[in-house]
Design goal:
mainly alpha; two-stranded antiparallel sheet; 5 helices; 2 strands
């Protein structure tokens, strides 16, 4: 199941929060009972919201919206939605050499 907070946060990070795109894409996913966003959903939502999106950007969006980007980047969220770091680094600290 997709988490709406993570979904909106990701769309904001992609610079799409000020468009109709997030709402259209979320409605599509909910109507289909989707557990993951597909490239076709992104393409359909982009057409409806009149937001042109390049193919390479769609791939990045898929990774981020489906959680792959968060896990690979060293952060993730648990079932309660708390974001945590998985790479062992503490934010705001400098590693000594």
């Amino acid at each position: 199941m997709l988490d709406r907070r993570d979904f909106i946060r990701t769309c904001s990070g992609l610079g799409l929060a000020g468009t109709l795109f997030p709402g259209v894409l979320w409605a599509q996913a909910q109507a289909q009972g989707a557990k993951k966003i597909t490239k076709e959903m992104i393409e359909n939502a982009a057409v409806i919201a009149d937001v042109p999106i390049a193919d390479d950007y769609k791939e990045m969006m898929l990774e981020n919206l489906n959680g792959v980007g968060a896990r690979a980047g060293g952060t993730g969220s648990d079932e309660e939605g708390f974001v945590h770091r998985t790479d062992g680094n503490v934010p705001g600290t400098v590693e000594k050499e």
